[in-house]
Amino acid sequence: MIFDFGGVLTSSPFEAFSRFETERGLPSDIIRRTNAANHLENAWAKFERAEVDVETFDQLFAAESLALGAEVRGRDVLPLLQGDLRPEMVAALKRIKAQFKTGCITNNLPANAIGSMTGRTLYVAEVMVLFDHVIESAKIGLRKPDPRIYQLMVETLKVDPKKCVYLDDLGVNLKPAREMGMTTIKVTSSAQALAELEKATGMKLG
Q: Can the keyword tRNA processing be found in this entry's annotation (predicted)?
């Protein structure tokens, strides 16, 4: 069982993006479109691989969003990333851990990027101990959807990808896992994810 973190075990930051855009009178989806344009080499990708610092990310993101129609400072986007933990998903993860190996692959930012996050760090730590192995993009300089990051997880857990289930809220990140033979679940809500997990595992999770 391999999980993404943000948007799977926490609520999606997309809701926060939309609120921010509405409050600032920005074009709808400008943040998501900036993230999606040139998604392997844009400011976001470089930051998640820890190739640039906060200052550079702030400037690059501003330039990329401006090219798509409205300037958004990278610094303003960072606080929007802190989703709320989904307790029902964490409870399911605890049950799954009792029977299966568990892993987490997360595209995250360098530890100091969002400033002080002590409260969040504590609850994230509580969830992270439920995994046999965690891969963080900012620590290894690789990010999803690079196929090597999935390969690394499979090798570390010593599992057959054909017997793995992978959950993510972004379709682009599910594709490499599916190509390796994993069963993939695109998470749109907790209820939907839990129903598909029950089907995949044969366990009662709700």
A: no
